[in-house]
Amino acid sequence: MWHEILYRVLSILSYVVLAVFLPALFLQVLEIFASFHRKVTFPKSEKKARIAYVIPAHNEASVIYATVESIFQSQKYPRECYEVYVIADNCTDETAELARKAGAKVLIHNDSDPSHHMALYPLRYGIDYILKNDPDAEIVIHLDADNHINPEFSQKMNDAYQTGIDFARPYEGGLNGTQNFFTKACSYFYAFDSRFGGRGKEVLHLSAHPNGSGAMMSRRMLLKTGGYDSTSISDDTEFSFNRMLEGVKAHLVEEAVVYEDMPSSGSDTLNRNARIAKGNKILMKTKTWKMIPMFFKTGDFSYLETFSTYSWVFTGGPFLLWVLAYYLYFFLYAGFAMNGAFPLTMFSTAYFHTAFYVALWILVGLVAFFYVLFGIVANLIFAIEEFDKFGAKKRSEFISMVLFFPIYLLVYGVSLMGGMFKKKNTWKAVKRNPNYGKK
To answer: CATH number for the 1-439 domain, one of 3.90.1570.30, 3.90.550.10, 1.10.246.10, 2.30.30.320?
Structure first.
C-alpha cells in the first residue's frame, strides 16, 4: 500500500538524519562526562608577566567606572604588572572621563563609517596601540565594559601563560544570573558551556572556544598574526577560528572567572544573540567548513567538535523540527496500524505493535536521561560548587533552574536562531544593570 511505502521512505530518511546528527550530540555528551574529572589547573608561577586589559566601550557611562575600579581594587597581582586600556568608541556620553577617573588609560576612537560601529574596530585599534606603545605587555586580555573578574584572574592567566599557552578562555559567569528569566537563560548557557563544555574539552585535550570576554592572547601570538586579524561582526569567534586553522590550541583557565552583566529582557537577549548568529552565518561560509578537511588532515577531534558545535546554530532547529514531526507521524501511523485501522500488505499489525512500544520506551528513556544529566545533575553541581558564578547568594536559588532548565535553553536557542533574521549588524547598546550583583 502507498502509505506503507511512505512510512518506509520516511523511516529510512529518519535513520539518515539521525546518523548525521548523532555523532555531534555524542561529542557533546562525551565532553559532559569528561567534565566530571577534576578541573585542570596550572602550576603557580613566580614570574609575573605584564598584562594589558583592553576594553572597547561605546556609551558605557553607566558601568565603565565600576568595571575599571573593580580591576584595580580586586586583583591579587602586583599593580605595576598590569594596566587597563579603555577604547572609547564614538562616545557621546562620559565614558572616557569616567574610565580615566577610575584609573584607566583612555584611547579615543572615532570612526564615522556606520559599518564600523561594532566592537571589532575599537578592539583592533586598542590591541595595535598596545603592541606598538606598550612593549613590556606580554599578555593582552579582552574585557567588555560590563565585566568584572575574580581576584585571582590575573594570576591564573599568568600561570597558564608561563606554561607556554598563547590563547585561553576563562570561566564565564553572570553578575545578575538570578535577576529574572532571561538572565537565568543566558547565565545558564554560558556557565554550562564553561563548566561542562570547557572543562570537558580541556580534559579531552580538545581546543577551547575563547569567545570574547576574558580571552587571553599572548603578545608573541599577536605579533605573528599581525594583531587582531578579524574582519566580521563575530570577531571573537573568527579570531578563534583563525588560530585553530593555524594549529594554535586554545585552553580553558577555569580558575579565572569573568562575570558578565546578562541581558535582562527578551529584546536585549535577541539583539545580543543577533550579532552572534549573524557572525556565525558569515563564518559558516568562510571558516567553519574548513574544519572538516583539517580534521581529516590532522586527526584532531577539535576540528570536528568545533564544526558540529557552530553548525548546530543553523542545523539544530531543522533537526529538532524533523524529529518532532517524524515521531508525531510515526506514533499516529503506528498506533492506527497496530489496531487494524487500515489494510497492510508489507507489514503486520504485530510489527507496528512492537515498533510503537520500542520507540516509545527509547524516547522516554532518552528524555529522562538528558533531563537527569542536563537538569538535575548539572544543576546540583552548579548549586553545590558554583552557585556564586551566577551572581547567586544562596544555593536555593537554583531550584527553579532544575525545574525549568529546558525552557531556559529553548529560549536562548530560539533567540540565537531568530537573531539571524535581524537586519542590522551595528553595535547596539543594551540595557545595563549596574547595581545588580557587583563583584
So the answer is: 3.90.550.10
